[in-house]
Amino acid sequence: FVLSNPTWFHLVVSIHAISALSLCVFTVLGYVASTIPMTLVVLFIFQTFMAILGLTAIEQSRRDYRSLYVAVNTVTAGSAIIWSMFLFIKMKEYPIYMPVVFLIIALFS
To answer: What is the pLDDT of residues 12-45, one digit of tens each?
Structure first.
């Protein structure tokens, strides 16, 4: 990591990398217990890629990677808002595990 002059971008990427690692542990435990849906596996792969992209942007001081990271995270934030609204509107129509899965997807987006 570049330790000179940390910014909000460093904080966001660090949080993203930590959440990707925690999602990795969650995915492995869920896979071992045979209870993990495929959406979380895809989410794990995507979040890991995004964390690597952000860390690479910091390490190499690449503005194009940084712009891509910010743009994709803006889109996923919109997706998280949509998932959260869907969760609260349709909560009574699904079994108990579906809101939990939607909430996890929204939080990690």
So the answer is: 777 777 777 777 776 666 666 665 566 666 677 7
**Count of domains observed in the chain:** 1
Q: Is residue 52 in some structural domain?
A: yes
DSSP state of 34: T
Provide the residue type at 52 as one letter.
Answer: I
The answer to whether 103 touches 14, Cβ cutoff 8 Å, is no
Using N-to-C axis directions, what is the helix angle for 8-32 and 38-60, rounded to 10°?
150
Any domain includes 1: no
- Start-to-end Cα distance in the chain: 24
How far apart are alpha carbons 69 and 7 in whole angstroms? 15
Q: What is the pTM of this model?
A: 0.54
